[in-house]
């Protein structure tokens, strides 16, 4: 765990791949006695959602340069309490660097960042309010899953033990096995259970469903929803666009280290084209007639009785739908742009 702050609950157990040493946890050469009683099942006052800032995650002009290359540049971001925020971008866009800056694992070249009103460079204070699950989870191989959870409970803020038991059951996690016998998916489950059980005001999750099967992905989504309902802030970095689309209130799209878009999913869709697929039982309106209507950007005739229309982002659907209804269609569907399509608009010309 060299260079990883021991006070950060998620990092304590969700070690980055290849860092199995326990020697640097809070400076102790040996772990605490994991067989002693666990901390009481209660939320500490530091996790009282009514007492914390409206913007638990905030950055101003945040940047990190390596040599002549800016990995992250001029990042201005505010994520309020009770929001699930998706952080998107391909490899090399600057997502991991941003997370390292937020967690105090890297020093910014420019700008500042705060977690739960604490400057991120004040690691001891900021990390009291944070649970973190890294992209690559590795656990102490000689400990059982139960022992890892108990160790995390001793080293970090007291977890909600009742909720932790619920999470263990939902994630179908066998805590009796030693971590060396766990698959990558089961290691991920241990990390997620430990992180969510803290009910930390700020959760930072990097590729959180890596290795999970569809049933466990559903359990993860339920836990995220409960965190949102509890007023926690959940910051999710993921390549799984369908996952982000399912759980996030807003998304930020990072390109070349710069934030090129921050918006709610509904807002993003409203600004993009809408597709209308319509079928008729008899001869239908011609494409030219529909192209004359306001907002219709494209009308494609698939067959004699089948049309596909593209409406410009923000266009009023009313006139088009009324015109189509007068032609008595037998089938009609309206499809908004998916998050993947929106994302590819920013990266279609890049690898």
Detailed description of the structure:
The structure is a single chain. The protein is an alpha/beta fold. The protein has two domains: 9-267, P-loop containing nucleotide triphosphate hydrolases (Rossmann fold, 3-Layer(aba) Sandwich), CATH 3.40.50.300; 273-335, Alpha-Beta Plaits (2-Layer Sandwich), CATH 3.30.70. It has twelve helices and 14 strands. The chain has helices at residues 9-13, 95-102, 123-126, 145-155, 161-170, 184-197, 214-229, 241-247, 265-270, 287-291, 318-326, 339-347, and strands at residues 57-66, 69-79, 84-88, 110-115, 118-119, 130-133, 202-206, 233-237, 250-255, 258-264, 274-280, 296-303, 306-311, 329-335. The chain has a six-stranded mixed β-sheet with strand order 6-7-8-3-9-10, sandwiched between helices. It has a four-stranded antiparallel β-sheet with strand order 2-1-4-5. It has a four-stranded antiparallel β-sheet with strand order 12-13-11-14. Helix 4 (145-155) runs parallel beside helix 6 (184-197) and helix 5 (161-170) runs antiparallel to helix 6 (184-197). The longest helix is centred in the middle third of the chain and has 16 residues, at 214-229. The protein is globular, with a radius of gyration of 24 Å. Mean pLDDT is 82; it is low at 1-32, 34-46 and 48-53.
